[in-house]
Amino acid sequence: MSFLFQERFLRILFIISIILMVVNLYAIFFIAPMVPEQHYAQKIFYIHVPIAWSGFLSYFIVMVAGIMFFIKKDSYWDRVGLAAAEIGTLFVALVLITGPIWATPIWGKPWIWEPRLTTTLILFLIYMGYFMLRKFGGHPERVARYAAVLGILAFLDVPLIFYSVKFWAPQFQLHPQSEMGQQPDGILRVFLFSMFTFTILYILMLRFRVKILNFHYKLKTNNV
Amino acid sequence: MYSYLSYCIAAYLIVFISLIAWFIHQFNIEKKLNNISKIKE
User: Who's near A183: CB < 8 A, 6+ residues apart?
Assistant: First the structure.
């Protein structure tokens, strides 16, 4: 039986995630009001932003795991960092795919070199480097140290992405600059529910992946 | 004229297929590791 169903916490989280996701999809398509200018394309926003949030949260965990690795000198934190980096990169890749899908009908072209898009792409490329370091870095202990440093430094790009709509002049921006609080109630409630749903899903994925990496580590060190 | 619905469906399909594929991939890794563990025992 999989770890997903063996551990009580994971099992409960898995069931909750499925229920939340079904309710979330129902709310997005049947409860949230339609925005006339964007029609169905606006529905992409309800998954695009929560996925971006979960991706950035994941990179925050990579940074925390990197710091903990240096403090505790325990390889467990290296595995947490690796798991979070993998899931974060999957989420950021989905952000970079769903963004252009939304932009094509709204902006008329899939990609524009504007600050938030460019800084998100840079973050994704930094993590491509991170995985190359993991794969080709040489001795595992040295790789763990370098990966921890890179994970800490890479997170510096996240506030830059978040504040890029403020740092650069409005004429360079295409991303919506209005605050979420200014959205109508119907949209805001569904949006926040979607954020919560993807956060729960992220916690489930991280915990599950860390369990598998721990098992792999135990096998490698012959503790099984 | 863009078909907004088809862009929406494309985005949702890509996201959910990727997430399901991720879980299936993890189950496969776990299965392989379990087999290795059984051989070692």
Answer: A191
Span A201-223, pLDDT tens digits: 999 999 999 999 999 999 988 76
Distance separating alpha carbons of residues A58 and A63, to the nearest angstrom: 9
Judge contact between A168 and A116, C-beta under 8 A. no
Q: How far apart are CA A203 and CA A65, in angstroms?
A: 15
Q: Could you tell me the pTM of the whole model?
A: 0.91
- Per domain, the residue ranges of chain A are 9-223
- ipTM value, please give it: 0.92
Tokens 């297929």 locate to: B17
Query: Which of A98, A222, A224 shows the shortest C-beta gap to B15?
Result: A98
Cα separation, A79 vs A116, in Å, equals: 30
Helix (H, G, I), strand (E, B) or coil at A219: helix
Task: Report the distance separating Cα A13 and Cα A4, nearest Å.
Answer: 9
Pairwise CA distance, residues A41 & A139, whole Å: 47
Residue among B8, B19, B23 with most chain A CBs within 10 A, to mutate: B8
Q: Phi/psi class of residue A108: alpha, beta or left (left: φ > 0; alpha: ψ in -120 to 50)?
A: left
Token duo for residue A15: 């069931």
Q: Is the Cβ–Cβ distance between A210 and A83 less than 8 Å? A: yes
